[in-house]
Amino acid sequence: ATLHGATSIDGFCVREAVFPISAEAKLASRLGPVMQSTGEVIGSASSYGMAYYKAQEAAGDRLPISGSVLITVTDADKPSIIEPARRFREMGFRILTTRGTAAFLESNGIATDTVRKLGMGRPDLVDAVKTRQVDLIINTPSGQQGQTDDGYIRKAAIRYRIPYISTPAGALAAAKGIAAQRHAALRLRPAGQ
Hints:
This protein is of the alpha/beta class. It has helices spanning 23-28, 33-36, 48-58, 78-90, 99-107, 125-130, 143-159, 168-188, and strands at residues 2-3, 7-8, 12-18, 39-45, 68-72, 94-97, 113-114, 136-139, 164-165.
């Protein structure tokens, strides 16, 4: 690819918006991402996954290389979440899901641990975020109740500084990025460690 006809780039570049406003302002704000962003960063690497990982890190949302992933998605998004969930499981991540997502993933051979949806008793998924049982959130809301729940989940993610992904495509990119970062870290480790 060439930029403005002058530069040739081998590999991939991923652009990410940067949100410099405070967490408190993000929590109260109803502005969309474009209206809140005052800049952007670009991660570049020889693989798409590593470029995505670098872009997230540069934007201040470092993806975890281990831990737990909370996945709660709409029925329409469930088929698209199989591959990212499988990749997270293969990397050793614990997968936390709400009941419907758990049933779907488990019917596709992906083991999960179930957490309660908001309003279905305590502890619920926001409690899991608050108690640091979650390292990454993948959430796609649906309908009016989904929008309300999404707001609470997003606020908890911001308050507790948990990376938050709202699309299956983003989830797959994150899984690829984490795998690439883990692979790079293994190559850089001194011999004997």
